[in-house]
Automatic annotation (TrEMBL):
Protein's name in the database: DUF2521 family protein
Taxonomic source organism: Aeribacillus alveayuensis
Amino acid sequence: MTVIHSLSQKRQEKQIKYELNILKELSLQKIKEKIKEHFIFFFQSRILYQAIVEETCIDHTIEAFLLGAHFSRFGFYGESIEMVHARCSNEIDELTRSLYDYIICWGKSTNDDLVDESIHLTCEIFVHFWWREGYRIGKQRHKLKLI
C-alpha cells in the first residue's frame, strides 16, 4: 500500500527543506555583529537594552533573509533588484514596522520624536540589509542550481 500525499503537503515539505538549506548560509555570529553595528548608538546611550533587542532582531533577521531568498528567483529570471523589492515591499514594511514597534515598546521612553525617527530608520536599514543578503544568497544558489 502506498502513502498518498497532498500537493500542499509536498509544497510545504519542499519549502521547509529550502529554508533549512538557505539558513545554513546564515551565521549567528554575523547577525550579532550586525545588530551591534546598527544599534550601537542606542545601546551606548542606554535607550535600548541589548539583550531584549538582540532576540527580536535575530527573529526579524531570519524572516527578512528568507524573504529575500524566496523572492530572489524573480531576479534570477531577469527582474532588477528594484522590481523584486517592489514585489515584496509590503512584507518588508511589515517586518520593519514590527521590529520598530517591539523596540519602542521595550526601549526606554524618551518622548523624543527625533530618537523615535532614528530608531525607525535604523530598523528599516537593518531589515533591508538582511533582505538584500537573502536575495544575494538566493540568487547565487539559483545560479549554481542548488535549489
